[in-house]
Predict the 3D structure of the following.
Amino acid sequence: MSLPGSKSLTNRALILAAIADGPSVVRRALRSRDTALMAAALTSLGSHVDTSADDWVVTPGGFRSDATIDCGLAGTVMRFVPPVAGLSTGTVAFDGDPHMRNRPIGEVLEALRAVGVTIEDDGRGALPFSVLGTGGVRGGTVLMDASASSQFISSLLLAGARYDLGIDVRHDGKPVPSLPHVDMTVAMLRQHGVEVDDSEANRWAVAPGTVKAVDHLIEPDLSNAAPFLALAALSGGSVTVRDWPRATNQAGDALREILTRMGCSVAFVDDGLRVSGPEVLEGIDVDLHDVGELAPAVAALCALASSPSHLRGIAHIRGHETDRLAALAAELGALGADVTEHPDGLSLRPAPLRGGLFHTYADHRMAHAGVIVAAAVDGVLVENIATTSKTFPDFARFWSGLL
């Protein structure tokens, strides 16, 4: 099977293309709600993103107009676009779907204020808010607590080269979750000729300078492979994902190790990555702090495993599209799973599961968990499978084809 492109890579590529020194192309861009919202946001600011073909052409432009940005349920739009909006001479208003008003953005807003950007909000550190641009940003050193989301760091790094003094981000707090996403940001900045110093722990410094125009070929979204590879793990069959990169900063690459530890056979083949399921699926004790987006799919597999599991280090996923720990405990528990919710994770023990309705909370990763359970347990119905369009618009057809 072939997967659509990575949302994380597509949205970072679009941001950098919009502030580059010339036009560029984002090839095999993911076409989903989140990336469409990003393209619309950058076009509203004054760039032009042509999404009419499979390869998206981005033409930078002057950010000189007032704009209204719809963040939808896209954390990358809510967090990545405001630092770019600071370069505008207009007033840029941000809002999104009702649930987005509960997702944290305050650390980014305070960091922007610290480097000279004027923000108007209601003091909650959440949507809605407005960025009052003056045509440039002073930049400099900011101290922030990014323990709630690595996107706080990436958001400032992506725009930092266009600031007068660059940006020097220093994290002070609990460990940053999902650090591979920060590594992804740093790697892409360097591809654009941006100087980044990440030699010190918890510090990332971007030097001021030009963002060179660079074409990107977007890798397949490896986290979206989770439910498909889970089919192999549960059935004892095999699934091959084409074009799986041999080296990548994507969090989804951790599936190779996780599934191996659960008893699967995992190997690179000529076409990509092949996963074959075991006779008996084993439970796992694993820290998912750096790859929290995989937690719903892994939890679903653990609920079907033959031995206990413990998923740790993922308190931060309570602040994603929904409180994923509470939602997983509730939905898996309602189907008969023996699950205990902890402040930073879940414990699951073998128990017979039964049919019922699996709620998705408008969260694409919860939908992944639901379909995994439904593939193994008769009578499980997954609510609102269309929420997968956030990162995989044609998910239902792909899933039905494999089943």
